[in-house]
Amino acid sequence: MNGDGDTYLSIGELARRTGLTVKAVRAYSDRGIVPPEGRTPAGYRRYGPEAVARLRLVRTLRALGLDLPTIREALDRDTPAAELAAVHAEALAVRIRVLTARRAVLMSAARRDATPEEMELMHRLAALSEDERRALTREFLDEVLGGPGSGMNLEGVARSMTPDLSDNPAEEETEAWIELAELCQDPGFRATMRRTAAHHAADLAEHAAGVPRPGPEAVIRDRIAPARAAGIDPGSTQARAVVDAVTAAYARQCGRPDDAALRRRLLARLDTVNDPRRERYLHLLAVVNRWPAPDPLAPELDWFCAALRARTAA
């Protein structure tokens, strides 16, 4: 006991009260994390009652993953436990994001049997900062949609096609971002999207008074879904009325007659739009942005293009 009547504790008693081993207590003491308040005449270390609370905090922080230098610094500065917990929680959040991105890369690589070169690219894409991700997609959209000064006013389209990965993305969102970023760098996909944008811009330029209206794809979805549900074959005579309704609506939008030239123009546009990579991009975009999954348009486009070719050839 000290002069004030407080009981000093031996290493063994300190270990018993804190649930630590004698070896662990001695190691913490040697590092200065729990220094002794004195020694017995025989040289044995003795600790004050506050050492119990200090060691219990050390045990908790170690279990949560904090390293010993950080713990000692915090204890020496009398950093409040709540503040220390908040700092460590943020550090863990960063670590979790890094590990989630790495796991997404590995899972994606395993599913597609990726080569080492592909894995390296996926890892690089997953590790991009927010500014780097925005720069990558902005460069892609500027190229395929014309960008500023191109004469194509497709800024609204660009906004609707811009991915915005969360600061704390789920694994499937990171995987979707990686695949989407790879698509953005695919020269073939870029060429398809440039043609799609050119068709769209040409149609917008011909809209009456420059007022945008639903594109032919929206009309096709509304008209073709019931025809497909009814089992109408695209090559049948029943399909003629459906085709005529769609091409007539498109002709009105463009301010042109519904003739063979307009139908060839529409077919060229739809063949470009019907690239499976475009639909894949829109699906991945919805995953990244946490939007509802878009309904696939390919079945309606396949049906209508087949029906339109039959009518145009005839």
Task: Assign a percent range to the helix content.
Answer: 55-70%
Shape: rod-shaped
Task: Count every beta strand, where a strand is a DSSP E run of 2 or more residues.
Answer: 2
The percent range for strand residues is under 5%
Order of helices and strands: HHEEHHHHHHHHHHHHH
Distance between the termini: 109 Å
Output the radius of gyration: 33 Å
Question: Uncertain runs with pLDDT below 50, 5 residues or more?
Answer: 1-5
Query: Can you give the mean pLDDT?
Result: 87
Which structural class matches the secondary elements?
A: mainly alpha
Main β-sheet: number of strands, strand sense, barrel status?
2 strands, antiparallel
Largest sheet: spatial strand order: 1-2
Please, how many helices?
Answer: 15
Q: Could you describe the 3D structure shown?
A:
With 314 residues, this protein is mainly α. The protein has helices spanning 11-18, 22-30, 50-63, 68-76, 81-112, 116-126, 130-145, 155-160, 171-184, 187-206, 216-229, 238-254, 260-273, 276-289, 298-313, and strands at residues 38-39, 45-46.
